[in-house]
Specification:
It contains 13 helices and 11 strands. A hairpin with a 5-residue loop joins strand 1 and strand 2. The structure holds adenosine-5'-triphosphate, iron/sulfur cluster and magnesium ion (MG).
Length: 398
């Protein structure tokens, strides 16, 4: 396996639960992330999936130092980020940037697009000296398929897809090697999702980026990821290549997740087994003993209550030459094909038409030409026609 650019080991983030007004006493902890391990190989995309509240965003925030881990290590090219001095960390952090979920709230409405994208240069002036910044920002707008002349516009003058492009341009400003994208397309219209995923795909090859890509949509994750990690209640319960996870899942939770993905072919749909999980996800403040999935697992036995299953290749597959031979945290891991491979997702390749060229993406993203002019509407008073229409063109296969 190629060299890991990020190595995450035994990562924990516990938020204390306190009681009392004058004397605050810790009475427990929300175990948002509770022992996560994974490697990110240079140039690959690692997808992370899992139900709401399983800790995906908390992992993302720790990777980019927006949250401090309670314990565990995050190594970037061998250097443990959790042990670096603030000064050394600032230099290294430049290389790991984040793209956020909501393009509507993640951009400051009072700043121009130029200021938003160029803001990281205030912290890292060595990347772009003052006189060079405008040109750099315009280059970045061009790279993400937006008109460089829109540099003085405000976020409200863009559609959702265009705003996410601005967020991506900002993420690229410091020429990072790793991008952590937390649900980067979830807030977007379905037709726009494909364009943004295409853009991320193209940028990855253009700038040799490595991605940690978090999403709910298993089809999108399969399209973009080389490997996929499935999270449940603060831990990764299964991890492997896209083929291993989607076509040869061995963990009951992964199997249940996949069984809920829509299958377009009516015949295949009629024959596939739908696994309905019972019960709610337990609170991360009160994690079940043994296997944390046991309260919802149809295969649970006594051992599951007593013994925490480790994330490792199950003994039964250790010597076998099969795609089922990958890490799975289950005492009774067993391959189960939930959907036929050729039909394994509603959108087996959502971007089958291939990535749109920059020009096409830009044309689709810009809408009608609209000169901002020196008196572009101030952020608080969006004119009735301030926002260009949502991208009309582009692949609509998602
Ligand atoms: N600052 C905080 N204080 C206390 N609990 C928190 C805090 N941030 C997150 N949590 C809790 O940690 C758990 C994991 O949250 P997180 O946002 O990482 O989940 P997620 O997998 O990203 O969910 P979603 O898919 O809804 O975005 C949740 O139970 C959440 O309520
Ligand atoms: S260890 Fe037991 S409870 Fe956990 S997933 Fe496997 S069978 Fe289910
Ligand atoms: Mg989240």
């Amino acid at each position: 396996m190629a060299e890991a650019i990020l190595e995450v080991r035994d990562l924990h983030k516990h938020y204390p639960l306190t009681q009392g007004i004058l004397f605050r006493k810790q009475v427990g902890a929300v175990k948002a992330v509770d022992g996560v391990d994974f490697d990110l190989v240079a140039g690959e995309t690692l997808g992370i999936v899992g139900e709401s509240g399983c800790g995906k965003s908390t992992v993302a925030k720790m990777l980019v130092n927006l949250e401090k881990p309670t314990s565990g290590t995050i190594r970037y090219k061998g250097e443990d980020l959790t042990k670096l001095s603030p000064r050394a960390l600032k230099a290294v952090r430049r290389n790991i940037q984040m793209v956020f979920q909501d393009p509507y709230t993640s951009l400051n409405p009072r700043m121009t697009v130029g200021d938003i994208i160029g803001e990281p240069y205030e912290i890292h002036p060595e990347v772009a000296p003052k006189g060079d910044r405008r040109r750099k920002v315009q280059d970045l707008l061009d790279v993400v398929g937006l008109n460089p002349e829109y540099i003085n516009r405000y976020p409200h003058q863009f559609s959702g897809g265009q705003r996410q492009r601005i967020g991506i341009a900002r993420g690229l400003a410091l020429q990072p090697e790793v991008i952590v994208a937390d649900e980067p397309v979830s807030a977007l219209d379905v037709s726009v999702q494909a364009q943004v995923v295409n853009l991320l795909d193209r940028l990855q090859s253009e700038f040799s980026l490595s991605y940690v890509f978090i999403a709910h949509d298993l089809s999108i994750v399969r399209h973009i990821s080389d490997r996929v990690g499935v999270m449940y209640l603060g831990r990764i319960v299964e991890i492997g290549t896209d083929v291993q996870i989607y076509d040869h899942p061995t963990h009951p939770y992964t199997q249940a997740l996949l069984s809920a993905v829509p299958v377009p072919d009516p015949e295949a749909r009629a024959h596939r087994e739908r696994i309905i999980l019972t019960g709610d996800v337990p609170s991360p403040a009160n994690v079940p003993s043994g296997c944390r999935f046991r309260t919802r697992c149809w295969k649970a036995r006594e051992r599951c209550e007593l013994e925490v299953p480790l994330l490792a290749v199950p003994a039964v597959y250790r010597l076998a030459d099969t795609p089922a031979r990958h890490d799975s945290a289950c005492h009774f891991a067993e391959e189960k094909q939930v959907v036929p491979p050729e039909e394994s997702l509603a959108h087996p390749d959502p971007l089958a038409d291939g990535p749109a060229p920059v020009e096409a993406a830009r044309e689709a993203a810009e809408g009608p030409p609209e000169e901002p002019g020196p008196d572009a509407a101030p952020p608080d008073e969006p004119g009735p026609d301030a926002a260009p229409p949502e991208e009309p063109g582009g692949p609509k296969t998602l």
